[in-house]
Amino acid sequence: MSYKGKITTSGTSDAIRLDKDLFKQNPEFKHQAEVRADIIGPGKMLISVLDRTESTTEEDPIVAAFLSFIEKDMLRNPGSFTALNTDVINRAKALTEGIVVTDEDFED
Questions:
Q1: What was the pLDDT predicted at 57?
Q2: How far is CA 40 from CA 5, 44, 47, 101, in A?
């Protein structure tokens, strides 16, 4: 779902006003909820509700958004997903045979 809004001011702070339907359809974004905004690209922001019991380990907002998307898709379209089987695993092993990956490959 997408929701439209406008950037405005509220008192001495900048604010983002969004369609009321967002809050009706997503009650976790209730009034006074504490949120975090992560910039994920030019002109792109991911807003997450902070759970007071949230762990202190840093979560990757992109991975979290992707997993949330997959979860919703699985619930809406359960027939479009199939179990991972040994044929697929064996094919992946054959395709990656001899490839060595180290932690240094993922450094900036």
A1: 58
A2: 19, 6, 10, 26
